[in-house]
Amino acid sequence: MNWLIISLIPPFVWALTNHLDKYILNKYFKGRDSGPYMILVSISISTAALLIAIFATQSIILTPLNALILIGAGILSMLGGLFYLFALSEGEPSVVVPLFQLVPIFNYFLGLIFLNEHLSNMQIFGSLLIIGGALAITIEQEEKKFKIKHKILFWMILAGLSHSVFDLIFKPVALHENYWGSMFWVYVGCVVFGIGLFILHKSWRKQVLEIVKQYGAKIVGINLVNDGAGMSAGLIFNYALLITPIALVAVIGNGLQPFFVLLFGIILTLISPKLANENLSKRHLAQKILAILIIFAGTFLLSR
Description:
globular
């Protein structure tokens, strides 16, 4: 299957999970910190790790050093997810998600420096179009002044850097070992991160226990569905990393995500404003649509 088609699946699925993340934060974590959500995420990931251990037992046997490196990569991935939740608590998905365009910027330089991956001039230009279009989505106009939300930008810079370093670490180890074994140890790192938060952060531990006691199986079930979809998309994304330069995969995976986030945001706002609250003013939509057209143009150039 063409790498471009493979890379298109994750942004579609992730856009759905972005809106569900916001819904979960608003409904179940209202008045609470967003950090405890990552503890619940680690529970879902532990299920995925267990399934790999059962059905691909031989694959999980790696060299101790590589297993340790992948555990560190999993911790980095969860740290990036935590920063993303901090940003999401400050704004809507259509504002937060486009800032994942920082990932291909970091990936390009990291891939060039450490993996000797080079892009053609056309691919670089297409990448810049996608990045520029996605960032344009985040700009808001207030009283004839342009404004970017600095808290969101700060947290997403940290999230982008975390995910970029993950991509850099994961690819060479997974290519040397095997895919499913590598993902198992990444998931182990994610679970270790969640356990660490639960043990070391007293306030978050208390909030998680309160949420589980209050909502019971409902919150666990919703979280499992959301995380299951997100992890499935992540498995496809990580596979694409193995067959294509990490900068290209990140540009497609993260570049088209804002389009799907906006599209789902508009649909959900029209169907049920309780699920999403997208600004549907003509000025706002015109800005978003123009930015998305720029993103599409960049994607077309990448496929040439």
